[in-house]
Known about the structure:
The complex is a heterotrimer of chains A (about 80), B (about 100) and C (about 325). Chain A has about 80 residues and is mainly α.
Amino acid sequence: MHAFFLVAATVLALNIVASSVRILRGPTTRDRTTAMLLLSTTGAAVLVLLAEVASSPALRDTALALVALSAVIVAARISAERAPR
Amino acid sequence: MILDVLTVLLVTAGCLFVTAGTVGLLRFGDLLQRLHALTKADNLGLGLIVLGLVLQTSNPAVAVKLVLLWVLALLAAATNSALLARDAELTGEHR
Amino acid sequence: MSWETVLDVLLATSVLGVAVATLFAPRRTSSVMLFLVLGLLLVLVWTRLGAPDVALAEAAIASGVTGALLVSALTRRSAAGSAETPRGGWRSAAAELAVAGTGGVLLGGVLVGAARDGLRPDRLGDLALDVDGVVDQPVTTVLLDLRALDTLLEVAVLAAAVLAALAVHREGESSIGIRSDTRPVLVSFVRLTTPVVLLLTGWFLVAGSSRPGGAFQAGAVLAGAALLLLLTGRKDLVPTGRWLRPAVVLGLAVFLAAAVLTRLVEGGWLDLPASWGVAVVLVVETALVVSIAAGLTVLVALSRPRYVDATASTETLGGAAPSDPPRRQTEELT
Lengths: 85, 95, 334
C-alpha cells in the first residue's frame, strides 16, 4: 500500500512540474495565476498521501494550511491589478 | 482486503482526474476553458483521493480533517476561479 | 530501486529544473510564479527529508505572505515598461561565474567532508531528542528551551525590521492605499474561512508543544488571514492604527519579561524550570504569534503599490491622519 501511495505521489508531483509549462507559456498573467490554483490542490493531495506513507500527521496540517491560504495569492493579484496606476 | 482494493481504485481514479485537469490546463486554448478544466477535475481528483484515504484510517479525527481539507479546497477553488474569470475580457490585460 | 528513490530523484531534478527556469524565464511574472512553484516543491522536499516543522513553515509562508508580497509587486506598471535589464558584457558574466564557482567549490567541500566523516557526536539534533526539556517536541525544545537566547535575538531583529519598514514608509507615517475588493464572492469566502484559519492558528500554537507546529507557523498562517481581511476591506478587524506598533513589539516585550522573570526566580536568564516552564513557553509563543503575524502583515501591506487617486480614500496604517492632498502623494510616489 505504501508503494502504491508513493507511485500516486510521484504522478501528482509530475503534474506539479507540468504546471510550470503553463507558467512559462501562458500569454496573460491570469493564465499563470491559473496554474497556481493547481499547486495548492495537487500539493495538498501529495502531502496527504505522504502523511500516510510517513505516518506523520503533521503533514495533513501542512496540507490544510496550503489550501486555506491559497486564496491569498489570487486575491492579492486581483487587487493589485484593479488598483489604477 | 476489500478496503484496500477500494482505496487503490479511488486513489487511482483521483490521480487520473488530476492528470486530466493538468492536460486541460496545458492544452486548452482559452483562459476560461483552462480555469473550468482545472477547477473541476482537480477538486474531484482531490475528493477521490481524500475518500480513498478516509477508508484507510480508523481514527475519526483524521477522517474529519481530510474531509475538511476537501471542503476548504472546494471553497478556495470556487472563489479563486470566480475571481480570475471575472473581468478577464474587460481588463484587456496582456502579458 | 524503491519508489521512494524515484520520488526523491524526481523532486530533486525538478527543484533544479524549476530553479533554472526561474532564473532564465523571459518575463518577470513567469519568474515569480515559478518561484512559488519552487516553494511548493521545497515543501515536498522538506517532508521527504523528515522535517515536517520546516515543511509547515514553508507552506504557510510561501502560500500566504511571500506569495502575496511577490505577486502584488507585479503591477502592470512594471510589466508595461518590461524592458529587460540589459545584460552587462563579459565582465559581469565573468563575475557571476566566479561567484558561482567559488560558492560551488565551498559547498562541495562541505558536502564531501560530511560524507567522508559521517555523523559527528554531540550533534544538536541528537541532544535535543535525549534532553528532558519542558516540552516534548524537540524542535520547540531547541528553540525555546535550549537556545532561547537565539530566538530572542531573532525576534528582536524581526521587530526592528518591521519598525524600520514602518518608519521609512512615508517618513514615519505609514499609509497604504488598498482598493478593497468587496465583491460578494471574496467577502463570503473570507467570512467562511477566517474562523477556520483562526482555528488552525490556535491549533498550531498549542500543538507546538508535542508535534510539529509552533509560534512561527501559527504567526504566518494568521498573517495570511489578516491579509485576506485587509484585501476585503475589513480593516476594522486587523489591528491597525494605534494598536499596530504595540502588536509588533508585544512578542519581544513578553519574551524579555519572561527572561527577567526566570532570572529573578531561577537565577539564570531564560532558565526554564520543569514545573511551570510549559506555561512560560506557551505565553511567550502566544505573544510571538501576535507579533509575527502583525510584522509579516505590515511588511506585505506596506509593499503594495501606492497609487494616486484623488477620489479613493487612503486608509492609513499606524494612526496617521489621512488628510494629505493627492498632490503630496504624487511627490512621494517612486
